[in-house]
Design goal:
about 325 residues, single chain, 5-stranded antiparallel beta sheet, 8-stranded antiparallel beta sheet, globular, alpha+beta
């Protein structure tokens, strides 16, 4: 089995604290910078799987970095540099306590809720007569709470967010506008690659001077769902499943093996052979989304490589 990085124990120069998310670990440097390390952990149904996926962290980091660069003209973001294939360095931000989910199609969680008979999702009324993977008349924003590790993100409406004071109305209007602008740009870029951006989520934070910026990841296969555009309508007309690029294939494998993150369920065994296929799928995702061949980094000693690259960056910035 190839080397992976699933947890880190760095002590960088100027380090103040570390926050460990489901997939990323974020180091606070002098209350000024954040060093975000994309690990090879795989999360599904808000549960972290026991084994890492080779190259997954590099793939997520490099896709997110590219899309930050491709959208910085319409939405400011936190990113400053990427000193290592698995690492992004950016401005220290205070995250908003919501994730902005935007959906162009009736897929994933929205499809499951719709099939269960729900016609209001996060305060948004859904039209009758849709089937799974149909396109919404216009994209809908369905926010979720941002849960702590081990907890599930929960659907929440705009009205509840404002009523509970989670985000001010002024700031929330900015988040909505940024979310729609990013989704439109992502949709255009996906179309140029022969893909459909189905749904995605964005996270935002405030810099120390109060500026709202995009943080974390953007348009990665962990945060987004893509369909292949070619044959989409034909598959819909025939009632067939869509050919997609996302980690939905992992979710479907888990469901088929009796796991949906519910209490009492056991995570099924992921063999080395299955993990190798997941790694290959992530590389396929990268190459289709970015439109370039994926270049594997040296994973002989990932921790040593990251430490050297980050320390060199901090020393020379």
């Amino acid at each position: 089995m190839m080397n992976t990085i699933t947890t880190t124990q760095f002590n960088f120069t100027g380090q103040k604290s570390v926050y460990r998310g489901k997939v990323r670990e974020v180091y606070n440097i002098n209350d000024d910078l954040l060093v975000m390390i994309a690990t090879d952990r795989l999360s599904a149904f808000d549960v972290v799987m026991p084994k890492g996926i080779p190259y997954k962290g590099q793939i997520l980091n490099q896709i997110a970095t590219r899309f930050m660069q491709l959208t910085e003209d319409i939405v400011p973001n936190w990113l400053i540099a990427t000193p290592d294939p698995n690492v992004a360095v950016g401005h220290l931000c205070t995250p908003f306590k919501v994730e902005m989910v935007i959906r162009g199609y009736v897929s994933g969680h929205a499809a499951r809720e719709y099939a269960a008979g729900k016609r209001v999702l996060c305060g948004v009324t859904l039209p009758e007569g849709l089937k799974e993977n149909d396109k919404f008349p216009t994209p809908i924003i369905t926010p979720t709470t941002k849960a702590d590790n081990g907890e599930h993100d929960m659907d929440i409406s705009r009205e509840d967010i404002l009523a509970k004071g989670i985000v001010s109305e002024e700031d929330y209007s900015v988040l909505e506008n940024y979310t729609r602008a990013l989704f439109q740009r992502g949709t255009e870029i996906a179309a140029s690659r022969g893909l459909i951006l189905v749904d995605t989520k964005y996270e935002f934070g405030k810099t120390k001077d109060g500026k709202i910026v995009l943080i974390d990841e953007i348009h990665t296969p962990d945060s987004s769902r893509y369909f292949y555009a070619e044959g989409y309508q034909e598959r819909q007309d025939r009632g067939e499943a869509q050919k997609q690029l996302s980690k939905e294939f992992v979710r479907q494998w888990l469901i088929a093996n009796g796991f949906q993150g519910k209490e009492g369920q056991q995570i099924p065994e992921m063999t080395d052979e299955y993990i190798a296929t997941v790694s290959e799928r992530y590389i396929e995702l990268y190459e289709n989304i970015i439109g370039e061949a994926f270049v594997k980094s040296d994973i002989t000693n990932i921790e040593a490589r990251i430490l050297e690259n980050v320390e060199n960056y901090l020393k020379n910035r």
